[in-house]
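JOB MANIFEST
job_type = single_chain_structure
chain_count = 1
residues = 117
[input]
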Amino acid sequence: MDVLRAAQHRANIGAAYFWLTLVKGGRELQQHAFEDWMQEGYRALGVMERHLKEHRYIVADRYTVADIALYAYTHVAHLCDYDLTMFHRSGAGSSASRRNPACTHAEAAGECYVGVN
């Protein structure tokens, strides 16, 4: 997966999550950046989706910190207006991190706090 696109994933979805869900009045304060976050965030999700069509994980042939890092933002993207229904492989419900049996079990119990929550 293109490392620069992964960085955009964090920069855009992460920024949108911070300002739109954690900062009171953040949407109004950052209205000028919202459209760019959405466009670039969707672009990064598309790169992730295409990659996961051909690979089970983000890097290597095993579960790595890269899967955790991207899941941390992807699983909260819906909270800041991203529509993940078109991302069957990279959407929060089907990311490589969610395929990790330990995380899936813990999440079912409400205990899987990977990254930002």
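[summary]
The two ends are 25 Å apart (CA to CA).
The chain has five helices and no strands.
exit_status = 0
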